[in-house]
UniProtKB/TrEMBL annotation:
<keyword id="KW-0378">Hydrolase</keyword>
<protein>
    <recommendedName>
        <fullName>Regucalcin</fullName>
        <ecNumber>3.1.1.17</ecNumber>
    </recommendedName>
</protein>
<keyword id="KW-0106">Calcium</keyword>
<feature type="binding site">
    <location>
        <position position="93"/>
    </location>
    <ligand>
        <name>substrate</name>
    </ligand>
</feature>
<dbReference type="InterPro" id="IPR013658">
    <property type="entry name" value="SGL"/>
</dbReference>
<feature type="domain" description="SMP-30/Gluconolactonase/LRE-like region">
    <location>
        <begin position="17"/>
        <end position="260"/>
    </location>
</feature>
<keyword id="KW-0479">Metal-binding</keyword>
<feature type="binding site">
    <location>
        <position position="95"/>
    </location>
    <ligand>
        <name>substrate</name>
    </ligand>
</feature>
<dbReference type="GO" id="GO:0019853">
    <property type="term" value="P:L-ascorbic acid biosynthetic process"/>
</dbReference>
<keyword id="KW-0963">Cytoplasm</keyword>
<dbReference type="GO" id="GO:0005509">
    <property type="term" value="F:calcium ion binding"/>
</dbReference>
<keyword id="KW-0862">Zinc</keyword>
<dbReference type="InterPro" id="IPR011042">
    <property type="entry name" value="6-blade_b-propeller_TolB-like"/>
</dbReference>
<feature type="binding site">
    <location>
        <position position="147"/>
    </location>
    <ligand>
        <name>a divalent metal cation</name>
    </ligand>
</feature>
<feature type="binding site">
    <location>
        <position position="19"/>
    </location>
    <ligand>
        <name>a divalent metal cation</name>
    </ligand>
</feature>
<feature type="active site" description="Proton donor/acceptor">
    <location>
        <position position="201"/>
    </location>
</feature>
<comment type="similarity">
    <text>Belongs to the SMP-30/CGR1 family.</text>
</comment>
Amino acid sequence: MLSLRVEVAIRNGAKHLAEGPHWDDVTQTLLYVDLTGHEMSLLCPKLDDNVTFVIPRKQGGLMVGLGRTISQLNWSSHAVTKIVEVDQGTNNRFNDGKCDAKGRLWAGERLINPLVPAGGNIFWWSLYSLDLHRTVRKQATNFHLSNGLAWTDDNRTMFFVDSPVRKVYAFDFDLEGGNISKKRVAIDMATAAPDIGGVPDGMNIDMEGKLWVAFYDGGVIGRFDPVTGKHLQTLKFPVTQVTSMCWGGRNHDELYVTSGRQGHPEEYFVQKEPLAGSVFRVTGSGYKGRAAHVYEG
């Protein structure tokens, strides 16, 4: 860790909330979204709803979370094709999303506006998977705010963040069948990281099987052992709203970290957090991750 360096990769790269970073191995480029700004990376025009994640599709184009839909985006024409819409008529949207090693897409929900009731299910949302035939399945439910996803190297365990309860859950994972079972708490931040403020947000995993968790309103990323539940290390950032991260670079030894710029008047950010909304690059950590999977359908 002696050569650890945190630098700005894209200054103020989001007007509101940078999220969902994905390193594209094919093009060696970073993709991410400006969630509430309805924008994706820096190259795509505005979309017509909250865009929550972006994942390359093996056959071409991109898969995006767009409101309560999973949609396909044609990069050249910017045409959007809705693949599936869940829980119509509710005050929800998709949030974080990633693909497993078989190329299925997994994404969870959250409430759009916590102040607006949602038919009695105000705090209970679900985790879905989209298989290669574009069939959507509700895999688990009764979550408050779905966030980061990660899988172990042997694909036998999947991890999932529920932000407001400040917990990382683990599931037994069936790679071939695309099923999860035996939900349990892997990390409870109340005991593992009581001194870190904010809530756990995006998440990733390194080659040693340790989880990296961003803390929104906490200004840090924490590294945790999901077997023991212990907090191992903390990376601090010059912004409060740290949202997510992904491994990138040719050797997957660079950590790209997104951040937000919302909830305060612009004067606050100018005076207190001028780098809010930036994308940061962490090098020299001594750790590596794996290439992110793409959608195979």
